[in-house]
Amino acid sequence: MINTSIAQPVVDKEIRELERDKRIKDGSQRITSTKDVATKDATSKPLFDKQEILGEKQSLIEQKLGELTNKLLSGLKSGEQGPNMPRLLQVAPNLASDVRELLKALEGNEKLATFKEALAKFIKPIENLSPQGVAQGIKDSGIMLEAKIAQSLEAQSLPSKIKELLSQMKNTQNQGLKESFLKLPNGSDAKKSINDLGALLKEQKKLNQEIINNSPFKALAKASNALENAAKYLDKLSNLGKNLSLKTAANLLSHIESSIQNAQKSANNYNLNSTTLKDARAIREQINASANELQNALNLLKNKDSNFKAFLTRYDPNNKQNATLKEALSKQNEPKANHIRINIQTSNTGSTPHSSSLNANSAQNASLSQNSSFSQNATLTQEQNSFKNINLSQFKEATSSEVNTPNLQGKITELARTLTSLKNTLSPELASAKSALEEINSLARLAKSAAKSIGAIKPNNAEQALKELQSDMKSVLLNLKESTQNQSSTQNIHTAAQRLLTQIEIHQLASFAQNSLQTYLPYHWDELNSSNLSFKRGNKDKFYARIELSFVKFGEIGIVLGLAENKFLDVSIQTGNDGFKELILSETKSLKRALNELGLVVNNFFVASKGGKSAYEQFEDIDLGYNIKA
Fold first, then answer.
1. CA-to-CA distance for 422 and 309, rounded, in angstroms?
2. Interatomic CA distance for residues 624 and 622, integer angstroms
């Protein structure tokens, strides 16, 4: 091993054990030296580990965290009491503060001076906050130590684009697509591996596209897509503050109305009388209710009636404060000639109950296919005349993205997702094919990027690998704990290191249990009592962040961020006291403007005091990625 300023007894031992295990597994007589590795072409090694993609082989991180979980659970199960139990429960909720206390304890101890220098690099003042600094701080926070050890044993170091491709292949949600990766040839070099993957994805795309094209339920998918596109376009206009003309607003509203009508027609185009389709009937009732509410809101906008808000608000009819909205709703729900009629098609065939219940009207499906697209650039037509004299300020209010304000986009998105739910209930095959197609397109884009970075594949460098291990918080703490063991003069340092390690391992366990990344804010801030950050990747191209902070003066705050397609952002904020909430509300416009300047489109922005619902449950119609409870 390389001589270093900080001894690595714990990490070195673990690496030696892993190298021994790898030798036995590979049947080799020795570990390939760094010099030998450097002489090989790193790109000639295969990229895809099929067992790992299929989930049949546990990763090193899962093994280590599994062992830690079992150790802690065994201790609790055995009812371990006495002096050991408090030690197990000793944690460092404000890790940054505890590191600073540990640094004070290390002052004047020459033997441990190298540890003091190393620890001082991990926690920086909040004034130095930067995106790059946070990213590096999380990487060195200790929760990734086992991943770094695993990487140090690999023969080659892969560029980020190739790592992202491998990660998405491993985490694909579609089992059929995952199993198709078994068809990839064995032993291919990096370039051929990616070419083979591209060909496989092209084949899978064709198969899934055929399933979608031949499905009798594709009209539901098209109607849902049209509504989603409409909502996204309105969000973009609202958040970017673009000035709209009456003609443009009329054009948008007319196409929204057409999309809503197509959505309702598509939902009512199937006979769902079979007893096996009770759930589907309930979903369709919800679709009809939502579509009628939206149609009523549009009718009021046509008539320049401010009561359109009644149909954009999820109100409780038992709440006295909503009496005005309730009255407006009851009046507008009276039958009118221009309301959409619900016409459920029935089957007169003699087929089985299940097959007859899904008998679609092909002519109507064809009509829906032609009219369910949402056009952003269409010209004003005769059917749009009913909207041409709308109140432009009312239109802007209906599409406003102000904090906590119900808007047209939210109701449209809700209807789109309910349509998708009906489609998934009636045809799981179509839902699976559509999901697979989205993943295939994403993988194809990643494969193109990965192909361009093949030349950046390099042999692993032992010196660099060990340097990364030394720059890890958990590595330093493990060795500090080892160096101060059984020494009365440094017992306080030993205990402090143990508390910090326990907190880091709790973060690792939480990450393991939730399939996410949970850590702490790697900055010290006198105004902050504790911090907790969580990051998670959802389905498709969705990412989530959960931020929990406890301030000395302002109390607690919980923030959930949901990012889709690298630009659409959902924000939910809950504060521990009303004063803090009002402070945030007063600066909301500046915050949203700053987010827009970064190229982000804020779909939803919610701020409230902490109440009955958590910040992660507040958005009823938004997938925030945190629904696992333990």
1. 27
2. 6
CA 141 to chain centre: 21
Q: How far apart are CA 620 and CA 101, in angstroms?
A: 43
* d(C-alpha 143, C-alpha 501), whole Å: 10
**Predicted TM-score (pTM) above 0.85:** no
- Which of 193, 258, 188 has its CA nearest to residue 226? 258
Hey, what are 231's tokens? 């909502």
Contact 629, 573 (CB under 8 A): no
| Closest CA relative to residue 206, chosen from 513, 498, 452, 440 | 440
Beta strands in 139-224 (DSSP E): 156-157
CA atoms of 594 and 598, how far apart (whole Å): 7
What CA–CA distance (Å, rounded) separates 433 from 175? 11
Residue 557 and residue 576 in contact, taking contact as beta carbons nearer than 8 Å: yes
Helix (H) or strand (E) holding 371: helix 362-371
**Alpha-carbon distance values, 556 to 200, 529, 552, 618 (Å):** 50, 9, 9, 17
Q: Tell me the residue ranges of DSSP E strands in 460-554.
A: 517-519, 523-524, 528-537, 542-551
| pLDDT averages per 10-residue partition of the chain, 630 residues | 45 61 51 43 68 55 62 52 45 78 90 90 87 87 86 80 86 83 82 91 94 91 90 75 76 90 91 88 92 91 86 53 42 34 31 36 36 41 66 85 78 90 91 89 91 86 80 92 89 90 86 83 88 82 88 92 84 90 88 82 81 46 38
In contact, 246 and 392? CB cutoff 8 Å: yes
Cα maximum dimension of the chain: 91
| Per-residue buried b or exposed e for 406-427, using 16+ beta carbons within 10 Å of the residue's own CB | bbbbbbbbbbbbbbbbbbbbbb
